[in-house]
Structure formats: C-alpha cells, structure tokens
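[recover] target loaded
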C-alpha cells in the first residue's frame, strides 16, 4: 500500500441484498473494474467525425485555458481518422492539382493511401507539391492568381486547419472579425456594419482596400505570429512547406518569395492570423483607446475593412496611421480603392448646406451602401447589389445562354431558376427590391435575345418566355430580415 511503484488492488465495496428486510439474502461483494488500456484522448476506433471534434475540442480548451502559452503537442492529433474525415469533406468535383489526382481516383484504395499519408506527415517526410496557378479575370480588367493545390495537400491542409489552427485562434479572434470563421458569414458582417452605422455616432467612413494582400504577405512575419501560440515545430515546418512549395505556370516551376497561395484551404486561416496581429489588436488595444477622440467602429471580413468615425480628424489620422502600420509588415493600401467619405445620419444635410451633392456610397461584400430615409423621415441605411457584381453575373449568364440556345427550353429554364435562386439567397435584403426586379427583368431580356437568335425566322414571344419564368423561376422577394432583427437575436445585449 505504501509502495512507490505499484498500488494495491481496487477497494471493493460491499453489495447490499436486493430483497426485503424480513428475508434478507446474503450480501455479496462488489466487483472491481477490470484492467485494460486507458481511454484514448483524441481518437476513436470508429470511423467518424466524433474523434475529430474531440481532438479539436481538447485543443480549443487548452488554448482558452492558457491564452498566453504555446501549445507544444499538436501534430499527433492529425490521425488517419482526421485525414479520412478531411478527404470526405472535400468537394468531389473540384479541379485536380499538378498531380492530376481527382477525388474519385484517390478513393480507390483509400485506406492504404491515408495510412501512407499519415506516416509521411508524422515522420516529416511529406513534401508539399507546387500549386497549379490559374488566372481569374477581375472586374477592373486585371487578373487574380488562383492556386489549385494537389489533392493530398488539400487533405492535410483541411485537417490541420480544422483540428489545429481554428481551435487555437478562434477564441483569440476579436468580435469585429468575420471572414472565414465558423458560424460567421458575410451577412453577419453586413448586419454588424449596418447596426453600427445606424446606432453609433458614425459620420465618416474609411473604405480600406489592402493592395494584393494574399500575394504580399510576409512569410517571416507570418511564421513569427504563428509561433506566438504554436510551439510544435512540426506544425510550423508543415506550414512553411506549403508557403514555399511554389507554383506551376505553363508546366514550369516558379518560386514565390512572399504571399500565401490564394485558393488554398489553409490560406484564409493564415490570413486571419496575420491581420489579427497586424490590424485587429493594434486598432482595438492601441489606436482606438489612445488616439481616437470620438466614437469609432470597425468591421473586417478577411482583407476587406470598413471603419467608421464620429469625427473627420480621427478618420484622417487613422488613415495615415494605418498606412504606416501596414508598411511595417510589407503591406500597402490600394491608392485608388481606399477612400474617406462623408456618410451617416447628418451627411445629406451637411453636404446640402455646403452646396454639394448627395452623400457618396461605398461597396462592401458585394453590396453598395447608401444613405436613405425611412418612411417616418429618419436616417436609414440602404443596401443594394453592387453594379459591377450585377453586370459581371449577367455577362457570364449571357455567355452560357449563347452556348445553350438550342438546348431544351425547360432544362434551361430550370437551370436559370437555380441561378436566380442563388442570387436571391445572397442579395435579397431589405431596400434591394428594385435591384432584384431589375436583375430578373434584364436576365429575361438576355434569354429572349439568345432564343431569338436560334434562327433567322425565330419569333419567340415574350408571353411564352414569361410562362416559363412563372413556372421555374422564384419570385424576386426579400428573403433576409432587417439587420437589427437578426443582429439582436444572434448577439443579444
């Protein structure tokens, strides 16, 4: 009993008889628990998501319990079960990377592939293949480089992001950060911005645009930021491998000395970590409490940032300080897209007194925000789909309709109905009804033009087109509540 190496057997409690008091049975002795292997801390023998969520929850609890300490044992949580879950969480029709491996092809002999991948990741023998670069056209006429990672890269990145990075940094991220976070979508950021403009003293708005953010992120600074919380060198080395993998352009490998591969699964999490230290903490802990003389609000979705101020002097000082702050970390504001505008409840009256026009507008997450009035004459915030987004979407649909003009009418009508339904799911917010009707009307004209070009004698009527629209298209009605209603429910005071 007093030994230091091995304890005595378990203390066995007595078991009382289960019969009445008049004829008690003989009491028996209880049974001690059997010996066996200790329960696994992060994995299960069953193939399911429970083991993955259990590991992520343990890391989250450790990160919350020790907010200033490094977590040193992390990579062992990337188990074969975690890799299997990450594989099934990927899109099955996604484009293949440089290795040409597709989801269906990798599924053949999946268990053997995952065990080999797990062995290479844990031993450090895993090598990140280069990213296949694809140029995506932008509305301003330029192109955006998009990286298509190999399938095994996607599997490992998905597992590391969901099991390690998100549980560590999610409790530390601030409330005004909304991009690529669980339970926080674009409409949550839009609601927060609308509520802040209407309820807080916002008279000036700084619409910030970080120039080529994903292409100019400093990798040295990013690694230093990650090392604040991650003490497992194997995880750091794995992330560095992804950053230094390079890209394949026209069959040739090219080195990328800075930036993160835009389009990779791990890139949004790394971007949030970078801007958390560069912008969020600086604004929340230093600039706003020390230098702001009036009220100030901020909403950030990835690298899209909108900041509101009560006083113009604060807005001008912040704009200068932000440029200096970003310059310290190899970032810069876009000179043409970053603007300071007068916006808010007094903007229209003040501009009219100075002989100026209506208040300027700004775009955020695909919506144009403008000053309006409610039916009672009070200040209201109007939101409608941005004209550039609307014209770009209609142009893409017109290109598809030209290729599908000879397809079955009902098949094309059903496809267009799904397109309109997706458009309404995002853009059907209050104050956007006129833009929604305009979108559907222009789309009908584009479809009618494509149908009438099927032959020189085709005279497809508007009435026949409208019958197809009424049958297959959803009505352009408002689908989202007012921002205050949804915001107050999700974040009660």
């Amino acid at each position: 009993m007093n030994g230091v190496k091995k304890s005595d057997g378990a203390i066995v409690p007595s078991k009382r008889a289960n019969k009445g008091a008049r004829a008690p049975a003989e009491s028996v002795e209880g049974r001690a628990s059997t010996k066996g292997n200790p329960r696994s801390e992060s994995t299960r023998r069953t193939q399911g998501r429970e083991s993955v969520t259990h590991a992520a929850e343990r890391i989250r609890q450790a990160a919350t319990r020790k907010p200033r300490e490094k977590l040193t044992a992390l990579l062992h949580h990337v188990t074969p079960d975690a890799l299997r879950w990450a594989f099934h969480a990927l899109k099955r029709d996604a484009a293949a990377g440089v290795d040409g491996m597709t989801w269906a092809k990798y599924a053949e002999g999946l268990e053997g592939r995952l065990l080999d991948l797990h062995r290479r990741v844990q031993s450090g023998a895993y090598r990140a293949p280069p990213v296949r670069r694809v140029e995506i056209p932008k509305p301003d006429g330029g192109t955006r480089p998009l990286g298509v990672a190999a399938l095994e890269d996607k599997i490992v990145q998905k597992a590391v992001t969901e099991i390690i990075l998100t549980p560590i940094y999610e409790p530390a991220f601030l409330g005004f950060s909304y991009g690529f976070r669980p339970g926080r979508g674009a409409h949550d950021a839009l609601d927060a911005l609308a509520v802040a403009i209407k309820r807080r003293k916002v008279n000036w708005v700084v619409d910030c645009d970080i120039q080529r953010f994903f292409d100019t992120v400093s990798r040295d600074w990013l690694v230093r930021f990650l090392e604040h919380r991650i003490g497992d060198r194997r995880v750091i080395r794995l992330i560095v491998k992804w950053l230094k993998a390079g890209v394949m352009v026209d069959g040739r490998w090219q080195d990328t000395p800075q930036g993160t591969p835009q389009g990779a699964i791990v890139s949004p999490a790394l971007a949030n970590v970078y801007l958390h230290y560069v912008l969020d903490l600086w604004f929340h802990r230093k600039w706003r409490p020390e230098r702001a003389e009036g009220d100030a609000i901020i909403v950030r979705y990835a690298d899209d940032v909108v900041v509101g101020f009560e006083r113009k002097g604060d807005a001008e000082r912040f704009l200068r300080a932000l440029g200096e702050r970003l310059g310290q970390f190899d970032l810069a504001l876009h000179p043409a897209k970053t603007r300071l505008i007068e916006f808010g409840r007094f903007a229209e009256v003040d501009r009219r007194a100075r002989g100026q026009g209506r208040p300027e507008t700004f775009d955020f997450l695909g919506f144009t925000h403008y000053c309006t009035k409610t039916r009672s004459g009070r200040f209201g915030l109007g939101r409608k789909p941005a004209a550039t987004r609307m014209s770009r979407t209609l142009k893409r649909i017109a290109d598809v309709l030209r290729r599908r003009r000879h397809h079955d009418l009902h098949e094309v009508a059903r496809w267009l109905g799904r397109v309109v339904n997706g458009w309404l799911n995002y853009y059907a917010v209050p104050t956007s009804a006129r833009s929604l009707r305009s979108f559907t009307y222009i789309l009908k004209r584009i479809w009618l033009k494509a149908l009438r070009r099927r032959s020189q004698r085709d005279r497809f009527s508007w009435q026949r087109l409208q019958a197809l629209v009424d049958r297959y298209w959803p009505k352009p009605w408002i689908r989202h509540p007012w921002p205050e209603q949804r915001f107050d429910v999700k974040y009660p005071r």
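[recover] notes: The chain is about 45% helix and 15% strand.
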